[in-house]
Design brief:
This protein is 33% helix and 23% strand. By secondary structure, it is of the alpha+beta class.
């Protein structure tokens, strides 16, 4: 094997000093920050890991005892702490922390000294240890400087750096996988064995390498059993080097380490794992004296046992055709893509194919990496990315270090610079805002608002689990967009002004024509609507106004399949030149989907009023008064329901001369679509005019954004109502037909 710098595991003195000084600064700076992350409360599963570390450090146990909830508010006093996962087996009389303890055990000394910041500092140490191991491995084939540069870029310019600031086991699991592969892929120095004697050989020599490799992997497997697949390549390496003895030593190391980890858990909690044989539940904690309420023994079965690892033994749940789409997202997804959030992983695969494609151990390693991915994609296709709290792929990041060991020679060397360039464009926003970006409506996924991420596909298969997005259904179509730019508001969709707002329109039928109602409140606004193959520009004057626009898309941007049905996805963009700030939203245009043009011309304008029960007199009030109507849909069409263009019950107030005082009365929605000939009873909530007097109340129907039924020849239901000054007596109801 050709080497360029001696082939040993020790970096040059200069390289060691560089890593040491940079590492010292990185380890110390988390100790000075006031909060180890955004949001300002604990996120995801952090409460359990954090409190477990404090409990181990201060109390020497894993029991959640009265008063321990107060520790949550020592450093995070601003918000309710969500999702404190606890476990019990006796109806919540005895309560333990409901997450695997091993990460908290190793982090306990740091948490005991420095609290949450200490756990972040511990994570930083793990990151630096991985960089060091990676550099030592790579310097077998490359100059020291190049080895350090590649290893540092591999870990720092990826989502790995963001997880340093999570009190979660991702960095711990990564370090375990990294150390296991390091002991397998880095042969022991025979010269050092000969010089340092028997004890060195027993602890650090060739014979000890399989034991240490397995022992390092065991805690990661304890946290996530599917990581056991990462043992395939080490087993092959030790089989080739030491024959069956290497395999036996590896298995012995795994059994001893795994038994020790499970045994400590049993001693602390009475269970070998927090995922087996217990009732687990996530609790929201708002007070320092929180304790779960006890459950009678006969009701124990009603408590939650979610999160067990037994699902691994079930059959795969991925639906036909779902896997190829998820693989695409897994590799290149906007929020989850392996090569998006770890561009050095793609570089590692390419370098492997260029220089080491005949290496069996690396092919087995690549197969293991693919196998772990398939476990997530096949068994939990609804949650393969890491659940609601994630940056990149939170589950798969655990095995990310495996890609580094695909690499031998980094040639040509300038490819490392290419990795840094891609990392700067994509992962750089995570590196320089590791706590989360301070943006409008912040989420952990706010970095995808940057331009480069628009080049990558949105993960529609897990769209409901990606924070930071809003959606609404209008007439059977689903509209979805970024929550900072798109806000459903009643029947309207509010879109941010002075910018282009990208949306997705999802439909189970292909669109041929689509009619939109557009309202602008900003003076002199220009609004552009675009669907694939068609664009409509609308000009508005100085006064608030509304217009309709018809677009004829040339076809969908993609066709997906969900639950056996095609789903057509259209990229829908709305651009507003102006905006008007309403509350916290800068409104450029309010848009509603009205369906196809033919649908607007349907003969739905028939109504038969069977009864209107209206009070004879009411008092002036800001609160609505109640009436009741009974009516029949006398048209030949179903009245649509749901947000967007739909039929609602409303009213007009007329004065004694029959002139409208209030024309656009408050809307009252039907519970659902009203079929032709169907009879319904509906409560009418109406607001009074501001001035007392005698009025006529006209109860009417409105096809929202299209027109009033009375304007299309349909009758209204009318009643004379006396509006009394505030504080006056109201009378009983009158019935009109």
């Amino acid at each position: 094997m050709t080497t360029t710098s001696g082939g040993g595991p020790t970096l040059s003195r200069g390289a060691r000093q560089v890593l040491l000084w940079i590492g010292l600064g990185l380890v110390l700076f988390p100790l000075a920050i006031s909060k180890p992350g955004l949001p300002t409360s604990l996120k995801s599963d952090e409460p359990a890991y954090y409190l477990a570390a404090l409990s181990l450090a201060r109390d020497g146990d894993l029991r959640f005892a009265p008063g321990e909830a107060a520790r949550l508010f020592e450093e995070f006093p601003y918000l309710t702490v969500k999702n404190l996962i606890l476990m019990t087996e006796d109806g919540w009389r005895t309560v333990y922390y409901g997450k695997p303890y091993i990460y908290s055990l190793f982090a306990a000394p740091f948490a005991g000294l420095f609290g949450a910041n200490g756990m972040v500092s511990f994570n930083m140490l793990l990151l630096l240890a991985m960089i060091w191991m990676g550099a030592c491995y790579l310097r077998r084939f490359n100059p020291d400087g190049l080895a350090v540069a590649f290893s540092a870029g591999f870990f720092v310019f990826s989502s790995t750096f963001a997880y340093v600031f999570w009190m979660h086991p991702e960095l711990f699991n990564m370090a375990c996988v990294m150390a296991s592969l390091y002991f397998a892929f880095m042969p022991a120095e025979r010269a050092a064995e000969a010089l340092r004697g028997r004890w060195y050989r027993w602890l650090c020599g060739s014979a000890a390498r399989p034991v240490w490799s397995a022992a390092c992997l065991a805690p990661a497997v304890y946290n996530k059993p599917m990581l056991a697949l990462m043992a395939v390549a080490p087993l092959w390496v030790f089989l080739r080097r030491q024959s069956w003895r290497g395999v036996v030593r590896f298995c012995a190391g795994a059994l001893v380490a795994g038994g020790l980890v499970a045994g400590i858990s049993w001693a602390l909690t009475g269970k070998a794992s927090a995922y087996l044989g217990v009732n687990r539940r996530g609790w929201n904690v708002a007070t320092a004296d929180f304790m779960p309420p006890e459950v009678p023994l006969e009701a124990k079965s009603q408590t939650s046992n979610a999160g067990s690892w037994w699902w691994i033994l079930d059959a795969p749940t991925a639906k036909p055709g779902e896997l190829p789409e998820n693989v695409r997202y897994f590799l290149f997804g906007r929020h989850t893509g392996l090569f998006v959030y770890g561009p050095f992983a793609l570089l590692s695969v390419l370098l492997f194919l260029f220089h080491r494609r005949r290496s069996r151990r690396r092919w087995l390693l690549l197969a293991s990496l693919a196998g772990v991915a398939l476990v997530f994609l096949l068994w939990i296709p609804f949650n393969w990315h890491g659940g609601g709290g994630f940056v990149g792929n939170r589950y798969y990041i655990n095995v990310y270090p495996g890609f580094l060991f695909l690499v031998a020679r980094v040639a040509p060397a300038w490819l490392t610079g290419l990795g840094y360039a891609a990392g700067g464009l994509l992962a750089g926003s995570l590196v320089f805002t590791p706590f989360g970006a301070p943006v409008h409506r912040p989420t952990l996924q706010a970095h995808v608002r940057h331009a480069p991420f628009r080049l990558f596909p949105f993960e529609f298969t897990i769209r409901d689990q990606i924070p930071g997005y809003a959606g609404t259904s209008q007439l059977g179509k689903w509209f979805m967009g970024r929550a900072d730019q798109f806000e459903p508001s009643g029947d309207e969709m509010w879109l941010h002004g002075n910018t282009t707002v990208p949306l997705w329109l999802l439909s189970h039928e292909p669109l041929t024509e689509a009619v939109f109602w557009v309202r602008s409140a900003a003076p002199g606004n220009s609004v552009r609507l675009s669907l694939p193959g068609d664009v409509v520009d609308l000009e508005f004057g100085d006064a608030p106004a509304s217009q309709t626009a018809t677009l004829r898309p040339s076809g969908p941007d993609q066709v997906r399949h969900e639950e056996g049905r095609p789903l057509y996805v259209y990229d829908f963009e709305v651009t507003s030149d102006r905006g008007w700030t309403i509350g916290r939203f800068h409104l450029g245009a309010a848009v509603a989907y009205l369906g196809e043009p033919a649908g607007l011309e349907r003969p739905i304008w028939g109504v038969e009023w069977l009864e209107c029960s209206i009070p004879r007199s009411v008092t002036v009030s800001e609160e609505p008064f109640a009436g009741r109507v009974r009516l029949r849909n006398s048209s030949s069409e179903t009245w649509p329901s749901g947000p967007g263009g739909r039929v609602k019950l409303a009213y007009h107030w007329l004065d004694e001369e029959g002139e409208p005082v209030v024309f656009e009365g408050a809307r009252n929605a039907f519970d659902g679509p009203v079929a032709a000939g169907e009879e319904v009873v509906l409560d009418l909530l109406a607001l009074t005019p501001e001035t007392p007097g005698s009025y006529r109340l006209q109860v009417d129907l409105v096809f929202e954004f299209v027109g009033w039924f009375s304007q299309r020849g349909a009758p209204t239901c009318e009643a004379e109502v006396e509006v009394l000054p505030a504080g006056g007596p109201a009378s009983s109801s009158q019935s009109s037909r």
